[in-house]
Design brief:
4 strands, 146 residues
């Protein structure tokens, strides 16, 4: 059976479009998606870059999967972010913004000069307003509490 020329063209164009559109569930899953915005902020703060740690990423995945309803691993520094269209870039941007010179503990954790290792994850979650993404990043060693 032969397809009409127009139908074959429509199917070909549709296939190309579907392949070109990124899958949101796959976004922010690579270490570089998290390391790049963190290390840009650290470069601005004139501190050494972070390196990816699979064990921290594993803990982050477990925490993110709780969608903010669980506890966090207290051995490490932690930052969390929740939004309908959350990306690693959005999270780091929020964590590193300072208002009138008053920086948050989240900012301190991102740029803490003794921190060397990073592990992050995001997880789709649901609430009464629909789907959102929950991002968790763990840092080792954690920023000082002082």
């Amino acid at each position: 059976m032969e397809f009409p020329k127009n139908l074959a063209l429509v199917l070909a164009i549709t296939s190309v479009i579907c392949l070109a559109i990124p899958n949101p569930s796959l976004a922010d899953d690579s270490p570089s998606d998290y390391l790049n915005p963190h290390n840009m902020a650290r470069k601005d703060a004139k501190v050494d870059p972070l390196y990816w740690n699979k064990e921290l990423a594993h803990y982050a995945e477990q925490s993110a999967g709780n969608c903010g309803r669980g506890s966090y691993n207290s051995h490490y520094g932690v930052n969390v972010y929740k939004d309908r269209h959350a990306t690693a870039y959005d999270a780091v941007k929020e964590w590193t913004k300072c208002k009138h010179g008053d920086c948050s503990d989240d900012y301190k954790q991102v740029v803490w000069p003794h921190t060397k290792w990073l592990g992050c994850a995001h997880h789709p979650c649901h609430d009464h307003n629909g789907e959102y993404y929950f991002i968790v990043c763990y840092y080792d060693p954690p920023a000082s509490k002082h």
